[in-house]
Amino acid sequence: MRRVFEILAVLCVLLTLPAASVISKEPNEKATRAALVKIAGEGLVESHAFEYLTQLSDDVGARVTGSPQSQKAVEWSLSKMRAIGLENVHAEKFQIWRGWTRGTAQAELIDPIHRRLNVDAMGWTGSTAAAGTEGELVAANVFNLDEESKHPAKFTGKIILMVAKGEPKKGQDGLTIFTQFGDFVKLASKNGAVAIFGGQRI
Fold first, then answer.
1. Among residues 150, 146, 154, which one has the least CA distance to residue 180?
2. 107-201: what fold?
């Protein structure tokens, strides 16, 4: 995952460059440094970042990894980089454990009171049976998934509501939580959890 983020960061920098930016082919350090300073300056005053962000947001839309929109974003990026004059532009293949696209989700609380809930499926969670499913609702804290994962059998037959209780642990950044969540989803699903929904900070 870190490699993917590094590639995306480089791509974001490249896409902010104006089409006229060219790095000198001279091998000496002085010429290279001057070219980089020129690029940095033009990137600040003639940046296409907002234009490209608008195109990605409005024309491509949400780009969950493994979804058709993700592939559309790759094709858009390749085309855009070639259009601004970059050479040797190509996509690198990679594997993820599961592709995913969000569908519709409905849920109702039936005990101790009956109430329809507004829910969305969490990313990379599987679908329930076509006729729906019932189960006891249990919470799992996204800031404490290492502990939650120690006894996976407790999620058998349960509907998991993901909550953010307290604060992230020291050194627990977004990428760490994302990775832990993916591992947790696989573990909970393997141990018979029937659904996983997103909750809120408590």
1. 146
2. Glucose Oxidase; domain 1 (3.50.30)
